[in-house]
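Why this split exists: single-chain examples teach little about how molecules sit against one another. For that reason, every record in the complexes split bundles all components of an assembly together and asks for one structure covering all of them. Below is a record exactly as it appears in the raw files.
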Amino acid sequence: MKLVTFSLADDRPGAGALFDDGILDLSEQGFGSALDLIASRRSPVPRGTRIPLDQARLLAPLPNPPRIFCIGLNYRDHAIESKMEIPAVPTVFVKLSSSVIGPNAPIVLPKISTQPDYEAEFAVVIGRGGAKIQAANWREHVFGYTILNDVSARDVQLATSQWTLGKSFPTFCPIGPAIVTADEIPDPHGLDIRLDIDGEEMQHSNTRELIFRVPELIAYISSITPLEPGDIISTGTPQGVGLGRKPQRWLKPDETVTVEIAGLGQLVNPTVAEA
Ligand code: ZN
């Protein structure tokens, strides 16, 4: 199933299942929201009236995730390219949920940053929560997978050793278009991932390059803080970010950023200057 959050003209957002020919409204099956569905661990029935895609607007599939954990320097190709040591322990920081936006919503480039950058990322959505989860049991805790663009103001991010605020401006966390349930992605460690700006490829790798894989990340984070349904773990970005390019390349207004991951679709967002 492809879980989405959508809204109609002047209705409040609701959970839906995305199909090629429309969206199945899951509120009719008693699911109040996408988070409600994830936490309930109840499977929806794939039957009912479908809303045509041109009548609905897709929002972030999980508009207000409890927590967004991000992993720094987690692609082998990126670490080698940057001549950085392969880390022994995952570098984990958080991105504030208030920065989340959905597909096609604009990324607002803040006036106080001259170095806004993109990061294509493969993200895991936790289903069943738990503390001290064994790596071998990771599949029991994964609801599904989605695409996340870890937009980062490099000057703000790197002004100190703490990255959270430089990555948490409003609109800096595009997610979507859908959360694809784990049953549709048998192996999350072999997925092509790419990002382009106005059609020009900037990043292209594969999740097999991940240094810390999904089982290890779930085990590590849950050894410290119990994971909750709807928590997101964004697994890090491969080589090719603007910061690492020669010359460096920053996001500009009126560009279109597209992140694509095999099996998860495309996450497209335009950029705009802060008014
Ligand atoms: Zn990142």
